[in-house]
Amino acid sequence: MQKIEKKIGYKFKNKKLLNWALTHSTFASENFYERLEFLGDLILDAVVGIYIFKKYKNKDEEFLTNLKSAYVNRNYLKKISDKMEIIKFTKYKGQKPKRTDRILESIIGAIYLDGGWRNVEKFIKKFILNIELEPLKNYKNLIFNYAIKNHNVNPVYTVVKIEGLPHKRKFEVKVKIKGVKYVGRGKGNSLKEAEIKSAKDLYEKLIRKYRTI
């Protein structure tokens, strides 16, 4: 416990919270881990949102939304978690969990419950907001706006394939806009990820064709 506390820069009053945060759902039947991850996701969104709102006073909603997306992006959080080697302190069964970003979120949830807003804000600023990032494009919004503006229809997302075990699903999704010959396709470990990738694929095809959309 002391080693992970030193690494994250926070000493828990209630050690059970830290233990729950580091006990993956494959290791225990209780749902403490998922609950802390859920809470951590909410707290992270709030802290990042408030921080960039105050920092970028003259930026519009689109910029702030896309920048927040960059900071809460699972790939970015995974890089941070892996750099901190949090997986070394995590209890799990079977294969090593790939979504180490979720472990980071569960720790955020645990810190909030144990130490409140000030301490969790300090952790997020130190490890997540310490790097300047570029706004992350919201491809689903871009495709939606293009479809409404140019064709007066909503883009349609269709699940093409679902593979894998219940706890390790792989999704394949396609997105189509009525009146547009191009189709976007994407794969991901969640439905949301697959939809974003399919939207990005269609966006890039439209950009290549029309230069701008």
Question: Main attributes?
Answer:
single chain, 213 residues, mainly alpha, Ribonuclease iii, N-terminal Endonuclease Domain, Chain A, Double Stranded RNA Binding Domain, 2 domains, 10% strand, globular
Structure description:
- The protein is mostly helical and 213 residues long.
- The chain has helices spanning 2-8, 15-21, 32-55, 61-72, 74-84, 100-127, 139-151, 191-210; strands spanning 156-163, 170-176, 183-188.
- The mean pLDDT is 93.
Helix share, percent:
55-70%
- Assembly type of the chains comes to single chain
Shape: globular
**What is the succession of H and E elements?**
HHHHHHHEEEH
Question: So, CATH architecture of the largest domain?
Answer: Orthogonal Bundle
Top-tier CATH class of the largest domain: Mainly Alpha
| CATH homology superfamily of the largest domain | Ribonuclease III domain
Low-confidence stretches: none
Reported for the largest beta sheet, the result is:
3 strands, antiparallel
Strand line-up of the largest beta sheet: 1-2-3
Count of discrete alpha- or pi-helical segments spanning 4 or more residues: 8
- β-sheet strand percentage: 5-15%
Q: Which secondary-structure class do the elements indicate?
A: mainly alpha
Number of beta-strand segments: 3
Query: How many structural domains?
Result: 2
Estimated radius of gyration:
20 Å
Distance between the termini: 52 Å
CATH topology of the largest domain: Ribonuclease iii, N-terminal Endonuclease Domain, Chain A
**What is the residue-mean pLDDT, rounded to a whole number?**
93
